[in-house]
From TrEMBL:
This is Anion permease. Its main location: membrane. It is a multi-pass membrane protein. Belongs to the inorganic phosphate transporter (PiT) (TC 2.A.20) family. It comes from Methanothermobacter tenebrarum. The chain crosses the membrane at residues 43-62, 74-100, 106-124, 131-154, 174-205, 212-229, 299-321. Potential transporter for phosphate. PANTHER family: PHOSPHATE TRANSPORTER (PTHR11101). Keywords: Membrane, Phosphate transport, Transmembrane, Transmembrane helix, Transport. The keyword Membrane applies. It is found in: Membrane. InterPro entries: Phos_transporter. It comes from the Archaea.
Length: 328
């Protein structure tokens, strides 16, 4: 069992590495896409604040993943390993296809899939599952309206009042500095969310508290951001919609506030889904011609596939591990 626990830790770090690389685009993609930051500077900024978020703000997500769905007293090493292995397999499959996914959707669905086989519906906390599903549905919708409203206010209250081209250029330059703050805030939220999602099961297996897991998990996030974070950042920053600093700040600030509120309540939402909703809202407030619907369709297709795939894969993985453990 000790070797299985070690494998669980390694897979958890692998998962943290990859979802951080996937999700950091939510924090810095708009800043890169609008030209406010170079890719390298944006990745370093994102890694720093994600590290802080992981250390100081991930506790509520950890409790939801590790204790809120399956009772912690029924969470043994085989259960935890099955959950983490399922999420790791699925994120590997999607990474090979180069399409962003929601690590939160994958991990929560894996926990539910394993729970269905290990403790059954009646053994799981159905209230928590309901709240999570509602947060998944509502967060991109709230992000959409928040992004639309934020940019509309800036456009009506500020941009339309500026007639001079040179003054408008200086205005965009000013908002590029504002994006440093919104991107930092967003990276802090992403660090807390991804850390809790990736390490929640491991914290439960370790007894609920581990300084070693906290430091190693946070470093896993940072490593993924620095080495692989540029891929999805390109998708969020440039491919979904054309952004300038005023629009980039609007999308980022609106989505960051939404994610912060959900993370504070322990809801493992997808920052990608929230930001894409916000970016779409900003794009529609500016004009639908700026949107690139083919990218949105590809991302949406992957999200819809993730949940049932991880439910089934989690159930199958746990069943196979139970059979194998009985033979060994």
């Amino acid at each position: 069992m000790d070797s299985l626990l070690l494998l669980s830790v390694l897979l958890g770090l692998y998962f943290a590495f990859n979802i951080a690389a996937n999700d950091i685009g939510n924090s810095i993609g708009t800043a890169v896409g609008s030209g406010a930051l170079s890719m390298r500077k944006a990745l370093l900024l994102g890694a720093f604040f994600a590290f802080l978020g992981a250390l100081f703000f991930g506790g509520n997500i950890i409790r939801t993943i590790g204790e809120g769905i399956i009772p912690p007293d029924t969470f043994n090493v085989i259960t935890g390993f099955a959950v983490i292995l399922t999420a790791a397999i699925w994120i590997t499959i999607t990474l090979l296809h180069g399409i962003p996914i929601s690590g939160s959707d994958a991990m929560v669905s894996a926990v539910i899939g394993v729970g269905l086989v290990s403790v059954g519906w009646t053994g799981m906390n159905l209230n928590t599952i309901t709240y999570i599903i509602l947060s998944w549905i509502s967060s991109p919708i709230i992000g959409f309206f928040s992004g639309f409203l934020t940019y509309h206010i800036i456009k009506v209250g500020v941009i339309r009042r500026v007639k001079s081209v040179s003054v408008r250029d200086r205005l965009e330059k000013l908002f590029s500095y504002f994006q440093l703050f919104s991107s930092s805030f967003s990276a802090f939220n992403v660090g807390a969310l991804d850390f809790g999602v990736a390490m929640g099961v491991l914290f439960t297996l370790s007894g609920g508290s581990s300084d070693f897991l906290k430091i190693v998990g946070a470093l896993g996030l940072v490593t993924g951001i620095i080495f692989l974070g540029d891929r999805v950042t390109e998708t969020i920053g440039r491919r979904i919609t054309e952004l300038v600093p005023t629009r980039g700040f609007s999308a980022q600030a609106a989505a960051s506030v939404v994610v912060f509120l959900f993370v504070n309540y322990g809801m493992p939402i997808s920052p990608t889904q929230t930001l894409v909703g916000s970016v779409i809202g900003v794009g529609l407030a500016h004009g639908t011609s700026t949107l690139k619907f083919d990218v949105i369709k590809d991302i949406g297709y992957t999200w819809i596939l993730t949940i049932p795939a991880c439910l089934i894969l989690g159930a199958v993985t746990y069943s196979l591990l139970k059979v194998l453990s009985g033979l060994l």
